[in-house]
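Milestone 3.1: sequence recovery, worked example.
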């Protein structure tokens, strides 16, 4: 039965608070600059550095200085997190919603972060309502198309489309309430 690799002592024992603090003091700024260059987002870079040290602390028993230095190990963790963040951004790009929908749902804030979060919440809430209502809202509010054009495309009278929009907005508000969003 093979013996598990023996953990060698290093100047930074990541299983201890003081070891993590020392590793952060030595490598935190460099990891932040790396993440910032890759992501071009200060908040995301900060999150990557924080998560890097959390993961390093959780996996402290797997760090083997005979395989790589602490710096190399931390950068490998950070690189994986940067790749994950880049993929997450590509899968869910931040697209601002038209002001009409946001005005209908609540006041527009000046914060880009709040607008992005609200956009994601609206997107999630839209997935929870009936497809007919969702389609009516997307076409009229989000794409700004005229009611008569959308009604003709969907093969329904304009009055029916207006009803779908009206009840779709009510359903959207209800879905957002259920999600805990206060508007």
């Amino acid at each position: 039965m093979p013996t598990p690799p023996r953990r060698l002592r290093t100047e930074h024992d990541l299983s201890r608070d003081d070891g993590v603090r020392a590793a952060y003091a030595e490598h935190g700024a460099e990891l932040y600059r790396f993440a910032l260059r890759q992501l071009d987002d200060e908040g995301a870079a900060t999150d990557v550095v924080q998560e890097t040290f959390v993961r390093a602390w959780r996996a402290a028993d797997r760090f083997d200085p005979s395989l790589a230095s602490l710096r190399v190990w931390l950068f490998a963790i950070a690189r994986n997190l940067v790749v994950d963040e880049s993929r997450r951004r590509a899968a869910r790009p931040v697209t601002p919603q038209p002001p009409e929908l946001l005005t209908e749902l609540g006041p527009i804030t000046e914060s880009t972060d709040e607008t992005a979060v609200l956009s994601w919440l609206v997107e999630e809430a839209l997935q929870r309502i009936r497809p007919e209502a969702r389609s009516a809202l997307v076409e009229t509010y989000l794409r700004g198309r005229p009611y008569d054009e959308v009604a003709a495309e969907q093969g329904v009278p304009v009055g029916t489309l207006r009803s779908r929009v009206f009840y779709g907005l009510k359903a959207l508000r209800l879905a957002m309430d259920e999600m805990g969003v206060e508007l």
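Residues 99-178 form a domain with the Arc Repressor Mutant, subunit A fold (CATH 1.10.10.10). The helical segments are 17-39, 42-58, 70-91, 99-105, 112-127, 131-142, 147-154, 158-178.
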